[in-house]
Design brief:
It contains nine helices and 14 strands. The chain is an alpha+beta fold.
């Protein structure tokens, strides 16, 4: 089954609902209560809040009302009452059979600790590649979106897609983000950059960039152990559409989605320039963290 609705149409139809979700997340952040932690291999993967569950339910209701035959995979699908009503949660097996994915609160631990750089990330995936990603930063009243082969755009939440301006990453800060499990790369990079390793640099009191820092210019590069479709791989797609370099840890092009498993691409390097990409490749080769 293919859809007459284009990825852009899907984003445009969901944007009003995502604005409401963003306002909700902003409103309750100071009063949020954590849910029992999920099973995960690190603090950030285990964090779960009322907002994660509520926003996913809200978006599911909108999707089922607007696009009842579409596939949908949300981060909290195992706890959702609505998963059974979607045609499937897996990737489609041909072009045009879209899978919509959602990370209702990307950076839940950031959110719970009162930081401002958490996001709501919604993506439209074809069988081989992302077609569209929309990432809202509620606390900053901004959002970005990217369409395959059409670039990345940014605007304020009151603006529609057509009113947004092109986003290009220029003169980023000389800072590198190392995802969980990649902190062994730090010694190779510290002579050239300020290095922030999630496992050792995160603070409940001082905000640090997430992967979304690649879009704001807060980061010159990032290395992540696995590219989850719902968050880091989606942000990498946006960064690539904004002019960044995105490869696997070996420097190879990212593989098609249909070759991947567990809703993940392999480890990724995201770099704002050729020189940064070279430094990150050299650090990975030297440390061999995989």
């Amino acid at each position: 089954m293919s859809f007459s609705a284009t990825p852009r149409h899907i984003l445009a139809a969901l944007l009003p609902h995502l604005r409401v979700a963003a306002a909700y997340a902003r409103q309750i952040q100071s009063r949020i209560a954590a849910q029992p932690a999920k099973t995960a291999d690190n603090l950030f993967g285990a964090a779960l809040s009322d907002a994660d569950l509520s926003i996913q339910t809200f978006v599911e209701v909108a999707l089922l009302g607007l696009f009842p035959q579409i596939r949908f995979y949300g981060e909290e699908h195992e706890q959702s009452y609505n998963t059974k009503y979607f045609r499937g949660i897996e990737l489609g097996d041909h072009q045009g059979d879209y899978l919509v994915t959602l990370d209702p609160i990307d950076g839940t631990q950031f959110y719970l600790d009162g930081h401002s750089n958490y996001q709501i990330i919604l993506s439209v995936l074809n069988w081989d590649e992302f077609e569209a990603v929309l990432a809202i930063t509620p606390a900053q009243n901004t959002y970005c979106y990217a369409l395959r082969g059409e670039g990345c755009w940014q605007g304020t939440l009151d603006q529609n897609l057509d009113a947004c301006e092109p986003l290009r990453v220029r003169e980023p800060q000389p800072t590198i983000l190392l995802g969980w499990g990649m902190e062994t790369l730090a010694p190779q990079l510290e002579p050239h950059y300020t290095v922030l390793a999630v496992a050792t640099s995160y603070s409940t009191h001082t905000e640090m960039p997430n992967v979304n820092g690649m879009l704001s210019g807060a980061l010159a590069g990032a290395v992540i152990r696995a590219g989850n479709w719902i968050d880091s791989a989606a942000l990498a797609f946006m960064a690539q559409e904004a002019g960044c370099i995105v490869t696997t840890l070996d420097g190879e092009p990212v593989p098609p989605l249909y070759t991947c498993t567990h809703y993940q691409r392999p480890g990724l390097i995201i770099a704002a320039s050729v020189s940064v990409h070279r430094h990150l490749l050299e650090a990975v080769a030297h440390s061999n963290p995989r």
